[in-house]
Amino acid sequence: MTFDLRLIPLLPFIGAVVLMLFGRKWTRDTVFIVAALAIGAACIVSLDAYFLALPDAGEGGLTDVVMTWIATGDLHIDLAFRLDALSGVMCLVITFIGFLIHVFAAGYMADDPDYARFFAYLNLFCGAMLVLVLGDSLPVLFIGWEGVGLCSYLLIGFWYSSTANADAGKKAFITNRIGDFGFLLGMFLLFQYTGSLSVPEIASAKGPLMQTLWMGQPVAFWAALFLFVGAAGKSAQIPLYVWLPDAMAGPTPVSALIHAATMVTAGVYMIARMHAVYLLAPAAMAIVALVGALTAVFAAMIGFAQNDFKKVLAYSTVSQLGFMFAGVGTANFDAGIFHLVTHAFFKAGLFLCAGSVMHAMSGSGDITIMGGLRKKLPITHGVFWVCWLAICGIPIFSGFFSKDAIIAGAWATETFGHDLAWVGKVVAVMLMLAALGTAFYMSRLYFLVFSGDETRADDHIKHHIHESPPIMTFPLVVLAAGAALVGLLGLPAGLWDHPDQNLLYHHLEPVLGAELEVSHNIEIIFMVVSTLLAAGGIGLAAVFYRGGYKEPARAFGAQFPGFLRLVQDKFRVDELYDAVIIRPLKAFARGIFTFVDRIIVDKILVEGTGVIVDVFARIARTVQGGDGQRYMAVFAVGVALLVHFATQPTLPFTKLKVTQTGRAVEVDARRGKTASSRSLDYLFDFGDGRPVIKGQGAEQRHDYDRPGTYTIHVTVEDPRWGTTDTFKEKVEVR
Amino acid sequence: MNPANATAAATYSPPVGDIILFAIMAAWVVGFALVTITRRNPVTAVMSLVATFFGLAAIYAALSAHFLAVVQVLVYAGAIMVLFIFVVMILNREEVAPLALRPMRLLGVVAAAYLFFVFWKVVSQGVATDVAPPVVPETFGTVASIGDLLFREFLYPFEAISLLLLVAIVGGVVVSRSHQKEVAALRAADYRKQVEQLASADYPGKQEEPSASAGGHH
Amino acid sequence: MAIPAEYYLILSFALFLIGTAGVLLRRNALIVLMGIELQLNGGNLALLAFSHQLGDQKGHVFAFLVIALAAAEAAVGLAILVGLFRSRQTINLDEASMMKR
Asked: What is the ipTM metric for this complex?
């Protein structure tokens, strides 16, 4: 069924363009209204589409074909959008949370001189993200994919006058690009073997996809793997996660929207979208799941020792994304998406709280100087409290249900065959460790920032601590409400039999297939275990940090100083990349620059061309000596040549054609000018004493009486000028 | 010579006296021409050119071009050469090495010589040599008959040529005019302009003067 | 005289050739001008030879005009030469030429 889906990304794009052109001249209020209106309208259209139109849509959901984009040979791609349950959910998340963040940013960025540019970029980002989720085929998705990468770069480096910010933006873009390369390879493979880039067509081409390609693995495996590389870049998984912590250099609303709720989830969405391909390659799914789980644990560990508010949240995001990938990797696509939704709410809430706190702390995000903010920032504290419990996985709050769905689903997954059956269990265990870690570091963050009575900062900061204005607290509250309640959308089936339970899963079922049937008992066990883990983590953190840096924390730090420093340095992954990849690349680039650019291009090609031209010019210049009499001499030579060739009977390089048969010889003196209408006189002397033959045409035949060597002379004369040419030819007669 | 023609008819050969006369005149002309172009001293060259022209006048007379023979002497040897002599007297310089035997130029001369060679061949070919040259009437080439042609058929070129001579006179005068007065006038104008500029121009450190002082400068 | 025309023609070309040699090979501008006069005379001789051969006096008229033209050209050329001498103090064509070698 068709629907004007194009409006959904179009409205924010128009907002972006309008703001870029005119925003600087408008007042801040006007700018905000335009931007918020754009995204708000997109939200309304999404709501309309999802709740009012989609139910009647039937199979395939709502579609909107804008135009034929590429039509060459085998490749036919339309610029088309599709809204089904999956993309609908994503749309709602993006537009709704996007709207809330626009509102927050109006307050947060109120003093920033580049207000209009910020909102223009924000709108642009929302438009691109919507294109990504609504895209009907992989190329359209890729447009959005690239678009959000670009906006991420623009927004991370928003305050570009600082080199560090610009570098962070570059790092994000370049790391993304590496992932995009993998994405492209995946697309190429899929097109090569299925002849199409549209998702449903690829999904139905099971035969071609199962052909063995390399190393005994089918096409589907390699395509899935390459696509996962792209997802790893966009969604910050090992090894391409390094850009996300640096991306915190951007304004906090950006971190909330892009690096928590939306852009980083694009990878998860993409894998869910391509689930048909992934299901054909369990090995690839195993890799996805394991990498996700490993990232979850690894990032959680780094989060233990970070001292910047946003950095903790950044590593938390990486970790939670790992959860999502583990979910989709174990064929629990619906669980992964569920966690995506809940994470969007509570992570955005957490980031906006960070913004609120930093706003209060005069821009500082250093948690070592915070503390006791519970009383001074009550609303912020309340929101953070809710989101904190959500992310830790305390029951009733949303994170509990989604995290649990993933862990239980990983344990009970049936998608791996006999050889890989262990993957699910290993993943589940790792995720539980990660959940423990999550609880620990988030609680550490909470306690160090909000608990206690005293703020550890200097006086001049302390005096400025104040709660944020309503324009900033309103979105916070809404997000907290979401973080608390969204979980109810996905109550696990095994728990009780209520018709409304697992609403989300049922909605997603047409797209993602039936949910995994986890047995009731397993469900309960995991719920209990997760709760215990969460409580344990919180408790441990309380011991270490409640009210400030307590004795156990210091003791631990003293015991393992080396390990502590390693964790604080993020396990020195960035340094590793720098040494192994970046430095060799730079050296290589410098080498190429010196050799190819300086020598080959500049010296040989550019200067060389000049030198060659110069040499020829010098030679040519000798013709023009600047000497008038010399010119006359050349003139005379030219005239002489002309006259010569005009009066000669035959052209230069004319040769006699002599054909010999036995004792007979045929001589043909026709060549060159004789083809013209002029008649020339020929004189043949065959050199055997016989009288010469003349005036009888250009061809003569002659029989020799005796064998021997004879010289034939042929004289051609032009009767008009009297000029002659003589030819000699020796002939042997046997 | 085309052998075919040779066998066809007998070649005409002119009377011996005529040949000798022609040879003397030809040698005179060619000889003095060669002298002209090879002398270091331009005066000698001019003199020998005059001699060449006299010889040519004789040849013209032999060709029944009576009027032109006289014109040759009067105008060429008389007027043009006098001009040359005047200039030579003014600019008399001897050359160090008369001939500039540069390769390209020599090549040009060689090319011209080759042309001469081809010309010889062609000429020998073209004109019929088995008959005596036609005899021209008595009035051929006389002043009266040429005058008749000049003032009837060729009146327009005649008037044009006189205009050309006028142009030449004017051109000669203009080209050789002395420019001293002009140069001096230009220099005076330049000087006056400079003075005005300095009087009115702004320069650093200039004080506002109540009265305009021409030529004041630092 | 009853000499065939081609003798005169060859003589005329010889004169032209000598004149060309003078024009090409001399440095003194005056001599070069004299070479030009020789060339013109060569042409005149050819005209008159043909005129005699064909019995047509148009050649005479042509030659007459050529002589007048040569006079004009000599006058102007010499004037230029005098001017050249005044500004360059030399009539040696190699020294006086401003065109780069």
From this structure: 0.90
